[in-house]
Amino acid sequence: MATEIRVPTLGESVTEATIAQWFKKPGDAVNADEPIVELETDKVTVEVPAPASGTLSDILVKEGDTVEVGALLGQIAEGAGAAAPAKAAAPAADKPAAKSAAPAAETIDVLVPSAGESVTEAEVGEWFVKVGDSVKVDETLVELETDKAAQEIPAPQAGTVVEISASTGDTVTPGQLLARIAVGAGAAAAASAAAAAPAPAAAAAGSSMPPAPSAAKMMAEKGLSADQVAGSGKRGQVLKGDVIAAVAAGMTAPAQAAAPVAARPASLPEDEVREERVRMTKLRQTIARRLKDAQNTAAMLTTYNEVDMGPVMELRKTYKDLFEKKHGVKLGFMGFFTKAVCHALKEIPAVNAEIDGTDIIYKNYCHVGVAVGTDKGLVVPVVRDADQMSIAQIEQEIGNLGRKARDGKLGMADMTGGTFTISNGGVYGSLMSSPILNAPQSGILGMHKIQERPMVVNGQIVARPMMYLALSYDHRIVDGKEAVTFLVRVKESLEDVQRLVLDL
User: Which structural domain range is residue 68 located in?
Assistant: First the structure.
């Protein structure tokens, strides 16, 4: 009786894969769960294990062929594999022997979780464990950094770490193996074998693996060479997704790359020894790219005004204790500003819209992003449907999002879908600045430091607590009149705070 080897399910959006390489040939003995063939998709490489022990009798698709999920790849005949000597079942040379060191132990795979529809990769940050360590359930194993936030990966079960498959700095994709944990009676033996196994040699610069067939085809179409594309597959193999990412990043054929970025001038020898070079985190790289893209894409302009914060400060002083007692959160300024912004967005909908090609998309809702500075960079969690919330509800949601940001627990759902952004540089002492748009949004409001300044009120010069406001906007969609009117409406709402309470 023969056992079929079929293409496994590769993810909800993946329908086909390419045969990257076979680890066995017809007639070879195989053991159950031994890697037998490697598949490559546009996102990741996947090793298909043998479903049973025996002898590989047939290979029905050759390397380079494209197959659909569920397609028959080959067949295993019963009999020989179970009795095969251990070295006949050894995995490929780059596979650690620790994988089969403790047959009595059940191993649990720790995979890269899905981080949201728009996130296709993450960077491995700090590992908190090493091979041989015992871990408890939910104990943090490693931190992953995406272009949005950092995410801690917990242990799914208690056990012993027997394999770590990705190093700090590696780029990984959802579903990719991070580590294996041995559980059960054989865990200790598996850990001892794993810890004793020699570490694999460091990979040489570049990759000895040829590009995956689909990647090679696309590289030829785009005129790219292998040294222009960083591979994320096994042993640095270039995948189709890597080529797509390189093209999206602006990589062109060598003949067209006429204007490379100027090289950084070398430091003086006496200065170089006092310098420290630190690799940018994934989040910081994305912040840099998105801010520069916003400058290059939008016709960005900034208009300014100032607001007398006296009425808001007096109301806050009068009711802050009662407010905190009733709602369980402190009464700050962000609730007032968010509410004022929502009122102005309803009147000036262009500021709440975005451009999509030759279309303008008007948003009939207000998802207000609130920029929060963390030790890992700027993140912008979103207060959804802020226009339907009271000031108390807004303050509660902002407080909740702020705590999650500081603890590194923001999810993708917390940071996507914003239609307008508020940035409060005043908490750091900024008196005036011009915020950069959070693309594809068309407007961002900059708040600043409250400072007493001499103002003329009813013919008298008095000291008033004033704040400069700055609205940066995309002039392709927002006219100057609309931008100025928007900022005036925010000013009017804050200086006549009863308008916010009465929803006027």
Answer: 1-95
Which member of 28, 475, 496, 503 is catalytic?
A: 475
* Dihedral over alpha carbons 270, 274, 279, 284 (to 10 degrees): -110
Distance CA 110, CA 115 (A): 15
With respect to residue 307, please indicate whether it lies within any of the assigned structural domains.
yes
Is 305 inside any structural domain? Answer: yes
Place of tokens 């294996």: 180
pLDDT, tens digit (0-9, with 9 covering 90-100), for 235-294: 666 776 677 777 766 655 554 444 455 667 787 888 888 888 877 776 677 777 777 877
The answer to whether residues 91 and 45 touch, using CB atoms and an 8 Å cutoff, is: no
pTM over 0.70: no
Which tops the pLDDT comparison, 336 or 257?
336
What is the CATH classification number for the domain harbouring 477? 3.30.559.10
Is 199 a domain residue? no
Angle of CA points 460, 465, 470, to nearest 5°:
115
User: How many folded domains does the chain comprise?
Assistant: 2
Whether 479 sits among the annotated catalytic residues: the reply is: yes
As a residue count, the chain comes to 504
Any catalytic annotation for residue 475?
A: yes
CATH number for the domain that contains residue 76 = 2.40.50.100
**What is each CA distance from 51 to 4, 23, 34, 67, 288, in whole angstroms?**
8, 15, 8, 19, 46
Per the residue annotation, which of 138, 321, 479, 496 is the catalytic one? 479
